[in-house]
Amino acid sequence: MRRLNIAHVTEYWYPTPVTLLPHRLRIRPLESHSLRIESSTLEISPANSVRWYQDVLGNSVAQVNFNEMSSSLRVLSEVIISVYEDPPLEFLLENFASNCPFDYAIDEQPDLAPFQQSVYPSDRAMLHGWLGRLGLLRRPIETFTLLLQLNCEIANNFSYQIREEEGVQSPAQTLSLNSGSCRDFAALFIEACRYMGLASRFVSGYLHMADNEAGNATTHAWAEVYLPGPGWKGFDPTSGLITGNQHIPVAVARHPEAVPPVSGSFVGPAGQRPALTVSVRVSQLGALP
User: So which domain of life are we looking at (predicted)?
Assistant: First the structure.
């Protein structure tokens, strides 16, 4: 078991005082059998009121309503979590799912159907050509081999770029540019899986690596695929790895643009564009006495 401290600061500065409309925060990690929250603090300015709720997929969301105008917005989240070992390769597929294509169990199909539907339908022709060139459309093909090859293909043959602007590139854009951010790679991986009939979803969260300790961490994004037997399993096409306990999920979604850490709007003079800074630190703590 490891204990991690996650400090996440988001700050906006506006040229003049503005009226902040309700904001939604998705910055609280998702608890599970391998992740427990020990403590959590949330500090927000200007003056506000906060209401927590769970969305339709079970993500923890804080809705923030503001009580005064301000020329800045600051959100500080600090969470201490316990992470337990969950070896990523120790899982077995049901026999009927060992090769693609396969049909999900009848009782699971209604729940999984939304995660099999493309959210970029106009990109399907380009996806077909790309997957065909990779040899991933041959039938049958071993499910695990397909997913590993797709994951490593993106990690090894696309250029990673940090993109500060909001939004997610479409799969067609990522294929055309041959580059993207972690959220762009996750979107491409997900759409490719859905094209091949596999239920998949977008995951936003944090990544704990040795070089994060100095305070240069960022939020991260990856994909999960629903596999009969093990359930939702994570694949990180930025690194080419199957996710493990270094990946800390915060929110899951059908659409890659549905779960930004901080979202909201403001009312102010026309043409105002706020300045934004984000600081994330993920550091390991000592064991409890």
Answer: Bacteria
Which residue has tokens 């094209």? Answer: 195
Residue ranges and CATH numbers for the domains of the chain are 2-84+260-285 (2.60.40.2250), 95-253 (3.10.620.30)
Under 8 Å CB-to-CB from 155, ≥6 apart: which residues? 185, 236, 237, 238, 239, 240
Residues 6+ apart with CB under 8 A from 100: 139, 140, 141, 142, 143, 146, 196, 197, 198
- How many CA within 13 A on the CB side of residue 21? 6
Q: What is the CA radius of gyration of the chain?
A: 20
pLDDT band (50, 70, 90) for residue 88? low
Give the Cα separation of 166 and 136 in Å (integer): 31
Q: Which two tokens stand for residue 106?
A: 């009848």
What kind and span of H or E run contains 143? helix 143-157
Comparing CA positions, the residue from 159, 163, 168, 204 lying closest to residue 187 is 168
The answer to whether the CB of 181 falls within 8 A of the CB of 189 is no
Q: Partners of 10 in the beta sheet?
A: 75, 278
Residue scoring higher pLDDT (217 or 264) = 264
The pTM assigned to this predicted structure is 0.94
Look at the block and give the residue holding tokens 């337990």: 84
